[in-house]
Write a structure and sequence with these properties.
Elements: E1 2-7, H1 17-28, E2 32-37, E3 54-58, H2 62-73, E4 78-79, H3 82-89, H4 91-100, E5 108-110, H5 117-123, E6 126-130, E7 140-142, H6 145-148, E8 158-162, E9 169-176, E10 179-186, E11 197-198, H7 203-216, E12 220-228, E13 231-239, H8 249-261, H9 271-276
Helix pairs in contact: 1-8, 2-3
Length: 277
């Protein structure tokens, strides 16, 4: 069984720990595990890709996403499926998927006219996000129209999301198939890189986590939740996270990948996701 990880270039240039651990486990089980960074290779999108039984997308870059799309068009198996990754990556599409699936999430708006955002900021505190952003890059919290005038808007399309007041801690759920884990950590601009502390998983969190996976067609994914008086709300979804702070995560992730590679697990993104992607 041949597996190939599509990885992101990292700074500093060291591999993701979850990939190191998972690769070691899968190699010990007899799998041929390889990896590469799209930006550091030369490839021919007009020719068939190298033979692999399963490609695993662990990168958010435009080139990686494009090459994943090429592989998908060639009929290659990807985990997660390309349409599901595109839907989660594009925050505008993701907002629609959450809403259509009845998953609790903040209200959001899209416009190309920055002047129109002022009216929204006069009604409620908002968060402005690049529509294809990640790791909190380019995100601004705006609590009133005056503050809005000092904001540097993202280049290109952006999403305006209702700001939801939370407890001051990030609540992050990690999922591998049916296994769901929860961690909390103090909120900060760089908290994405900090391992959280494991916390007991509430049934309501597990229910939301699995519904998100079904809605997007994801098998390895994570999400950020904000706890509110009316229940948790999903503010972000991403595919193949780092599973930081989860003891034994590598064994669970490797097990799911092994099952998926063998055809014992399948993901079927809805037709609407494939059209959107």
């Amino acid at each position: 069984m041949k597996l190939y990880f599509l990885l992101a270039r990292r700074d500093p240039p060291q591999p993701s720990q979850i990939i190191v651990d998972v690769s070691r486990i899968l190699a010990a089980r007899g799998m041929d595990v390889r990896s590469g960074i799209a930006e550091e290779r030369i490839a021919r999108p007009d020719e068939p890709a190298g033979e692999s039984d399963l490609f695993l997308l662990k990168s958010y870059t435009e080139l990686s996403m494009s090459m994943a799309g090429v592989l998908d068009a060639q009929g290659a198996r990807l985990l997660n499926p390309y349409p599901a990754c595109m839907a989660a990556r594009n925050k505008i599409i993701a907002a629609q998927v959450l809403s259509r699936s009845g998953i609790p999430a903040p209200r959001c708006w899209v416009t190309a006219d920055r002047a129109l955002v002022e009216a929204i900021a006069g009604e409620t505190a908002i968060v402005i996000k690049p529509y294809m952003g990640w790791r909190g890059e380019g995100v601004s919290i705006v609590r009133d129209p005056q503050e809005l005038r000092r904001v540097e808007f993202p280049q290109g399309p952006f999403l305006v999301q209702e700001y939801v007041e939370g407890s001051g801690e990030d609540l992050r759920l990690y999922v591998a198939g049916e296994s769901v884990f929860a961690v909390k950590k103090p909120f900060s601009a760089g908290s994405f890189a900090v391992p959280g502390r494991p916390v007991p998983l509430l049934p309501a969190w597990r229910d939301i986590a699995l519904r998100v996976g079904q809605a997007f067609g994801l098998g390895l994914y994570g999400m950020d939740l904000i706890e509110t008086p009316t229940g948790p709300k999903v503010v972000d979804v991403n595919y193949f996270p780092g599973y930081k702070g989860i003891p034994g995560a590598a064994e669970v992730v490797a097990g799911y990948i092994e099952q998926y590679a063998a055809g014992k697990q399948e993901l079927s993104p809805a037709a609407v996701l494939r059209r959107a992607a």
